[in-house]
Amino acid sequence: MSFARAAEISAYLKKYTVGIAGCGGLGSNCAVALARAGVGKLVIADYDIVTNHNLNRQYYFHDQIGRLKVHALRENIQRIN
Q1: Is pLDDT at 72 greater than 90 in this prediction?
Q2: What are the chain's domains?
Q3: Do residues 24 and 49 touch, judged by C-beta distance below 8 A?
Q4: Above 90 in pLDDT, residue 34?
Q5: For the chain, what percentages of helix, strand and coil (3-state, to nearest 5) are there?
């Protein structure tokens, strides 16, 4: 893909907002993929906290255990971008 085409796609995706209900195994990984793709805004809703059992399949780290998933995921996405 040419740089011009990649820039065009990035500008297109940046205009959009995507809502994600839940940031567990599917939601956390989708959120990271969408952020990496360049979606402009993500709205993520979840009430759960990160536990040790989440670490093998969800996009969280050991030092985030006990935190709300939405806060930990926001931090991880901001690190990427």
Answers
A1: yes
A2: 3-80 (3.50.50.80)
A3: no
A4: yes
A5: 50, 15, 35
